[in-house]
Write a structure and sequence with these properties.
Blueprint (H helix, E strand, L loop, with lengths): L5 E5 L5 H10 L3 E5 L3 H8 L8 H9 L4 E4 L2 H5 L4 E4 L14 H13 L4 E5 L7 H10 L7 E5 L18 E5 L2 H14 L4 E3 L3 H32 L3 H8 L23 H11 L5 H11 L1 H15 L8 E5 L14 H11 L3 E5 L12 H7 L2 E4 L4 H4 L4 H5 L4 E4 L6 H6 L3 E4 L3
Parallel strand pairs: 1-2, 1-4, 2-3, 4-5, 5-6, 7-8, 9-10, 9-11, 11-12, 12-13
Antiparallel strand pairs: 6-7
Helix pairs in contact: 1-3, 5-6, 8-10, 8-11, 12-13
Length: 425
């Protein structure tokens, strides 16, 4: 089979841009499209619009090789392969919002050439490719095209499992589509590629793997709340349980679950199951537990203040971190945003700092935050926070620290006569 040599990436965000860079590194001619004109301008100027060490390094390697535009049809018309990487969020009622996917697919339908391979990497619920994407593509004047789903797998900031080292699963609407997609990923992925029997199975794989994580995190978060009342350090218990060589898989408690996958994907499964007459009680409960964690974290501080006969209203509170995970600039669904909203509602005086999102911080650096704060809530375990000089907490007369990621040295902080409380410890 002739190797395809041109790829169009629709959506140049946290998934699409790394895929575009990887394709360019492996010799494909890459066309990239995104409706965000500012992002396109940055890429054209040679600036990576996403702060991530690995991605920035990849971006440097392909500088000048990405043909980017805000005109989706322009990017699609000459491509042999089109990969759709647009956001698939949920709305305020937790219903899947496929607006961007429908729009991108319509552009592909209008602009693609004969024998184009279309791959959906966006996270979607089972049935979406055949029931929503395929009918839109069939409106095209093109007589023959190929369609497959290869759910994105990427872990921003993970230096061990970079994009090309993560195994992938593929499902096509027919055997020819699966084969085409397999041969494409075989060229750019240095890991196992598994061809599933149907596109629905591929769609369900992504949903299930992230829902698995959500459920296990919810279990650990609930155990953390329980152990906290029992005076048991959950981190010690996890360490002990993790010595079992089978059955147990370590997950960790925290201030909340963020990102575009784990807090979103369960709702896709919940919504689709309801359409076919099944209710996911377990998944709904897991979401309820994980969504409760920002409130719980603030309550930990509020309870300690009450013991000091102090009020959270007017309290000078430093919030460490805005992103949903360490050492990246991604704030999507970040629990930090919920913690901040809760503290604002309680009329606390907030000092916010994130070294990766300085434009949304209201102090210039960590030192200024410590100088102005009496109490600290750590939300994101950035290396800058984990490695900070803890003596500065005492020097700046910090009274209480709530460690929302259990990443600080509890014993040292207590040794400094600072009141410490983690999640379940």
């Amino acid at each position: 089979m002739k190797m395809q040599n041109s790829v169009a990436i629709i959506g140049l965000g946290y998934i699409g841009l790394p895929v575009a860079c990887l394709c360019a590194i492996y010799g494909y001619k890459v066309y990239g499209a995104d409706i965000d004109k500012n992002k396109i301008d940055l890429i054209k100027k040679g600036t990576c619009p996403i702060k991530d060490d690995y991605l920035e390094d990849q971006f440097k390697k392909v500088k000048g090789k990405l043909n980017v535009t805000d005109n989706l049809k322009e990017a699609i018309k000459d491509a042999d392969i089109v990969i759709i990487c647009v956001p698939t969020p949920v709305d305020k009622n937790y219903t899947p919002d496929l607006t961007a996917l429908r729009s991108a697919t319509a552009s592909v339908s209008e602009a693609m050439k004969e024998n184009t391979l279309i791959i959906i990497e966006s996270t979607i619920f089972p049935g979406t490719t055949e029931e929503i994407v395929l009918p839109i593509l069939e409106e095209s004047n093109v007589k023959n095209f190929y369609l497959a789903h290869c759910p994105e797998r990427i872990d921003p900031g993970n230096k061990n499992f970079t994009l090309e080292r993560i195994p992938r699963v593929i499902g096509g609407i027919n055997k020819d589509s699966s084969i085409k997609a397999y041969k494409f990923y075989e060229k750019i992925i240095n890991a196992a590629i598994i061809e599933l029997s149907s596109v629905k199975a591929a769609e369900a794989t992504k949903i299930m793997e992230n829902t698995f994580r959500d459920i296990n995190i919810a279990f650990i978060n609930e155990m953390a709340k329980s152990f906290d009342k029992a005076g048991i350090d959950i981190m010690e218990v996890i360490k002990g349980a993790n010595t079992k060589p089978f059955a147990f898989k370590a997950h960790y408690p925290g201030v909340g679950v963020g990102g575009h996958c784990i807090p979103i994907d369960p709702y896709y499964l919940i919504s689709k199951a309801k359409q076919i007459g099944f209710d996911h009680d377990f998944l709904i409960l897991a979401r309820k537990i994980n969504e409760s964690m920002p409130v719980y974290t603030v309550e930990l501080l509020e309870n300690k203040l009450k013991k000091l006969d102090e009020s959270i209203e007017g309290a000078k509170i430093g919030v460490l971190g805005l992103t949903y995970k360490a050492d990246v600039d991604d704030v999507r669904e970040s629990p930090a945003l919920k913690v901040i909203d809760i503290l604002k509602e309680k009329k606390a005086e907030l000092f916010i700092f994130d070294p990766y999102v300085k434009e949304k911080s209201n102090v210039k650096d960590l030192n200024e935050l410590l100088e102005k704060s009496d109490y600290i809530i750590l939300v994101t375990d950035h290396k800058e926070f984990k490695n900070m000089d803890l003596d500065k907490l005492k020097e700046n007369k910090i009274k209480i620290i709530i460690d929302g990621r259990n990443c600080l040295d509890k014993e040292k902080i207590k040794g400094l006569k600072i009141d410490y409380h983690g999640i379940g410890r």
